[in-house]
Amino acid sequence: MSRRRLRNSDASISLTPMIDVMTVLLAVFMVTTPMMTTGIDLNLPRAGHSALSGNDHAIQISVDSAGRYYVGQSQLSLNDVVKRVVAMRGENSQLTIMINGDTKADYGAVMAVMGKLKDAGFQRVGLRTQLDD
Question: Distances from the Cα of 74 to the Cαs of 4, 38, 61, 122, in angstroms?
């Protein structure tokens, strides 16, 4: 009669692969986030001598004169803009979003994206302008 020996298995979890994956994700986000702050060429409205220029870490959403929406340089529909920004938000609930509306952009298009972002839970949404000469 043979007896089977029960082995004591090591039930510990190795965290090294998880840390490696998180490090790669962090590096990818650190590299791609500055690319999202670049945008398309717009003729921004003038608003006196104290313009709202936004900070360098804000996500830039642009609305051109034809009413098309851009995140960075990617043209998207209004719903896709909101989905992309929500995905970029991640754990940062204090993320700042600057909307760059062309001078000839439809007011309704600019306010539509602002309203959708507010509905999605973003509290820090601003409009970018340029200085008066």
Answer: 63, 10, 10, 21
What's the pLDDT score for residue 123?
Answer: 83
The CATH number assigned to the domain with range 37-127 reads 3.30.420.270
3-state SS string over 46-95? ECCCCCCCCCCCCEEEEECCCCCEEECCEEECHHHHHHHHHHHHCCCCCC
Q: What is the three-class DSSP state of 32?
A: helix
Q: How many CB atoms lie within 10 A of CB 129?
A: 19
Give the 3-state secondary structure of residue 133. coil
- Say whether pTM exceeds 0.90: no
